[in-house]
Amino acid sequence: MPVNVKLNYLRIAPRKVRLIADLIRGKSVEEAETLLSFIPNKSALPLVKLLKSAIASAKNNLQLEPANLYISKIMVNEGPKLKRWRPRARGQAYEIQKKTSHIVLVLESKVKEKKKAKKAKTTEIVKEEKVEEKIEEKAVKEKPKFKPELETRKPKTEKGFRRIFIRRKPVG
To answer: Where are the alpha helices (H) located in 10-43, listed in sequence order?
Structure first.
């Protein structure tokens, strides 16, 4: 069961938060937490806080083991911009956009995925074996009408410019 956690209206530009989010995507929870604790960027602190919140909710609400969790998905979207004005020369004013971010963090357990993957693999293998058996039966029943050995193949022609002369190195 995935654990979804959101952080809305973070007052850091999404471009800056995505740099840190890309580092922890797909990592285990423990590894991501240690990585974020040593990153000096301003956006690492709210991500650590969000990650700890997600771990706590997974542990208390869904009784999941924190050691088995990993970050399956982390998305950083753009939130609303705060518009501010800066005075400039000759009575002009330039707009300043103070950007905000919305972060969505999804944690999943490694144990469940392995079980699902094994079941899927066994069913796929059984299906492949059945298909191979049918193909073999058809091959035995049907005799080929033509002989591929007698068939002549045309040589591949290269498209485009073909070099006619060879450049020689100057003597000297």
So the answer is: 14-24, 29-38
**How much is the CA Rg of the chain, to the nearest whole Å?**
30
- What pLDDT shows up at residue 110? 86
| Helix, strand or coil, per DSSP, at residue 141 | helix
Q: Looking at residue 39, which CATH number applies to its domain?
A: 3.90.470.10
Number of separate domains in the chain: 1
Q: What one-character-per-residue DSSP string does 135-155 give? A: HHHHHHHSPPSS-TTT---PP
Between the alpha carbon of residue 132 and those of residues 1, 56, 112, 128, the distances in Å are 36, 49, 31, 6
pTM for this model (two decimals): 0.62
Q: Which residue type sits at 7?
A: L
| Tokens 């490694």 -> residue | 110
SS3 percent helix, strand, coil of the chain, rounded to 5, is: 45, 25, 30
First to last CA, the chain: 75
User: How do residues 108-151 score in pLDDT, each as one tens digit?
Assistant: 998 854 455 555 556 666 667 777 777 767 666 665 555 555 55
Q: Tell me if residue 72 falls in helix, strand or coil.
A: strand
- By three-state DSSP, how is residue 32 classified? helix
* Residue numbers of the domain that contains 82: 3-109
Residue 19: closest CA among 85, 92, 101, 133: 101
